[in-house]
Specification:
mainly alpha
């Protein structure tokens, strides 16, 4: 499974906010410059992060964004789901209650896809922004 640029850039954006905001909001243009990512693209990502309750924005000359929670309370999984949606390698592995396709009852690979989804979730749901910052070189 390959992560899209939204997931990768969303994680970089959140790490940048965690390391640079302190008590003041961080302007998206500053994040864009530091991370070498288009400000327009970051605007699309920040909307999703804001809707998920992971960041708060303030307007005005000194406006920008801050994390809505402490870095140790925000998991990589929170971020990836906010910007990517499901983390399943295939749609049918994401169904909680019932099958989403006519072949689910006889599908020989559905358990494999579900195990892959679970393995990925086990990693990203147990790693926080604070963990990643602590590991940086």
């Amino acid at each position: 499974m390959k992560m899209s640029t939204k997931g990768r850039y969303g994680l970089r954006l959140m790490l940048d906010l965690a390391m640079n905001s302190g008590s003041r909001p961080v302007a998206l243009k500053d994040v864009a410059a530091r991370q070498e990512i288009s400000e327009k693209y970051l605007e699309q990502i920040i909307i999703r992060l804001s809707r998920a309750g992971l960041v708060r924005g303030t307007r005005g000359a000194r406006g920008g964004y801050v994390l809505a929670r402490d870095p140790q309370e925000i998991t990589v999984g929170d971020i990836l789901r906010a910007v990517e949606g499901s983390l399943s390698p295939v749609d049918c592995a994401d169904c909680a209650g019932g099958p989403v396709c006519d072949r689910a009852d006889s599908c020989m690979t559905i358990d494999l896809w579900r195990e892959m989804r679970q393995a990925l979730e086990d990693v990203v749901d147990n790693r926080t922004l604070a963990d990643l910052i602590a590991q940086r070189p």
